[in-house]
Amino acid sequence: MNRAAVLTGIGSRLPSRAVSNDELAASLDTSDEWIRSRTGVGRRYFAAPGTATSDLAVGAGARALASAGDPAVDAVLVATTTPDRPCPATAPLVAARLGLSGTPAYDVSAVCTGFVYGLATAAGLICAGIAGRVLVIGAETFSSILDPRDRTTSVIFGDGAGAVVLRAGDPAEPGALGPFDLGSEGEGGDLITVLAGGSRQRLSGVEPGPGDHYFTMAGKKVFRLAVERMSHSARTVLDRAGWKTGDVDRLVGHQANARITRHLAEELGIPPERCVSNIAEVGNTAAASIPLALDQAHAAGGIGPGDRVLLTAFGGGLTWGSTVLTWPVIARPGDGPHETDPHERAGVRR
């Protein structure tokens, strides 16, 4: 193969409202110490009322396009678990708001693995010659599906968006995405789920229960499976790329839980100082977690040109996936990943 998808731009957006552990603990039977010790989360960001996933996606996408130095792309992909509506997809709206009306755009639904699946899909478009440049966005407003009374989920997740621009290039150049490994296991679909709202529930003839519209997760089983599937997937792509674990300068796993990241690094034999983690500052942002972590690390100098980077994720479906790249030189215009929500500027508070 003489054509590859090459990373050429990156950007992210967070809502302006930070929610501390103490704020959540005031309404839950928990504490800052309990949350930090079990998840690693210190705070997360929640979107204001009236803000949707597409709003964060547009912000991150605009920054990624500016970073790439070219607003034109041939396709827009949005990975999300929390689309603006069940129908239509969120991506066409995002494309239109970015001035890309007429560009093919569609959503990718693989929960926390969605961004890696989106990268693989974009790479396929580029390698097949269908597209020369693709904008891939991971965006979530997970606060919209969390049960505020459930401390096992409501303390972990947050809202945000991250995006990258990929262009056609040479497989040997910096930024070229390496081999991919993707997988799924539908038998475990009930471990990470929202029971109500789809055709299964609507056509069952049974009214949904009071908590069926909220996100649920079987934490202990998910913990074990996440480490197992991500470590196996990561080793697979390292073997395909001809890398050893000692060659990895930065491990960027899905920011599910600080303990999962730690166990994953131990399983792979990668020193903890080589792990990129932002879960303490933003929580688990699902499909947005990897691009958001990459953008923040890039801005802070935690990832630099020439670094060999391993990406791996695990999410509902069950799904998992990994890829590698050598970090290129990327411009990062602007002043940071935060976006002041227009509703909050008007004085509305969540």
UniProtKB/TrEMBL annotation:
CDD domains: KAS_III. GO terms for biological process: fatty acid biosynthetic process; secondary metabolite biosynthetic process. GO terms for cellular component: cytoplasm. It is found in: Cytoplasm. Residues 335-350 have a biased composition (Basic and acidic residues). NCBIfam families: fabH, PRK09352.1. Residues 255-259 are annotated as: ACP-binding. Homodimer. Its EC number is 2.3.1.180. Residues 238-327 form the Beta-ketoacyl-[acyl-carrier-protein] synthase III C-terminal domain. GO terms for molecular function: 3-oxoacyl-[acyl-carrier-protein] synthase activity; beta-ketoacyl-acyl-carrier-protein synthase III activity. Pfam families: ACP_syn_III (PF08545), ACP_syn_III_C (PF08541). This is Beta-ketoacyl-[acyl-carrier-protein] synthase III. The active site is at C112, H254, N284.
